Amino acid sequence: MGMIGVFIIILLVLWYIRQRLLVEEPKRKLQIGNGQTIGRRAEQDDYFATATTPLGTIAVLADGISGLANGRLASTIAVDVFIQEFSKLTSLEQIESFFARASRLSNSEIIHTLRGTKGGTTIVAAVIADGYLYWGAVGDSLIKIFRNQDFITVNQKHVLQSVLHEQYLARQITKQDVLDNPLKHRLINYIGYEGFKNIEIGQQPLALYKGDKVILCSDGVYNSMTEIEMAYILAEADSPYDAAQDIIEVIDCKKLRNQDNATIVIVEDGEQGYG
User: Fold this and answer.
1) Other CB atoms closer than 10 Å to residue 174's CB: what's the count?
2) Which end of the chain is less enclosed by CB atoms within 10 A, N or C?
3) Which of 159, 139, 127 is nearest to 74 (CA)?
């Protein structure tokens, strides 16, 4: 065999080894942490779950409405439906329709299960795939990105205060009218009632950077801690799990008189992203 033949064989062997490495290289796993407290409530109405498929990882958090009966049941149904529907996806091109479909199915399932009794829930769902964040939200639970010691708030709160703020910007009411309205924190959209409107969906996926932490939390978290307190913990904790546990511990230690259920989910991949 001539030198050219040997050279060709070497190239073929190297190509084969490279292809095997590409096929066998495991997908990076996200680090996921969570924490939860019942607070001063009689029942834990928050519910959450995470799941990973070949498409990506989803985190879902629902805050059952404590002022209505069956808050726990509503939040559980909503989260379960989102996880089940996500497991059926085969392409990221289906993500937007997934959020819309899962929210409609959740709403119908809750109404059917409750059979006329009142119940409802907020929901936030975050999908992380190929270094991007896809999301959907209903109600006043929040999705945030913690990046470079600062927070990026991803979704809006679907409460009356948001409508009042728009009216203020349009000079229809005064700033004091916004501040004094006793119903400003009332939900104007949630899952589990006939008047459900739609889910807020991110129009474009958000690129995640190295070190980003994607945070899902119920209002029992952000109403009990300042962003400064949360930022300190997120920056100092060794892992998303430690950060979530520390945040809940701080909330419990405050012993606030009307402490709501509080739930937080933190997702991070220190090696993923574009920064």
Assistant:
1) 11
2) N
3) 139
- Reduce the DSSP state of residue 30 to 3 states and report it: coil
Domains and CATH numbers, the chain: 31-268 (3.60.40.10)
Cα(259)–Cα(220) distance, rounded to whole angstroms?
7
Instruction: At 63, list the tokens.
Output: 């805050």
Alpha-carbon distance of 126 to 195, in angstroms, equals 24
This model's pTM is above 0.85: no
Nearest to 218 by CA among 270, 141, 157: 141
Q: Is the pLDDT of residue 175 over 80?
A: no
Q: What does the angle CA 220 – CA 234 – CA 250 come to, to the nearest 5 degrees?
A: 45
- Cβ(60)–Cβ(127) under 8 Å? no
**Contact between 163 and 121 (Cβ < 8 Å):** no
The structure tokens 């495991």 sit at 26
Query: According to DSSP H, which parts of the chain are helical?
Result: 3-24, 71-87, 95-114, 160-169, 175-180, 219-222, 227-236, 240-254
Q: Is pLDDT of 19 > 90?
A: no
The β-bridge partners of 56 are: 53
80 CB neighbour count, 10 Å cutoff = 16
Average pLDDT over residues 49-61: 97
CA distances to 26, 167, 173 from 14, rounded to whole Å, are 20, 66, 71
The model's pLDDT over 191-232, given as tens digits with 9 standing for 90+, comes to 998 889 899 999 899 999 999 999 999 999 999 999 999 999
pLDDT, one tens digit per residue, over 126-159 is 999 999 999 999 999 999 999 999 999 999 887 6
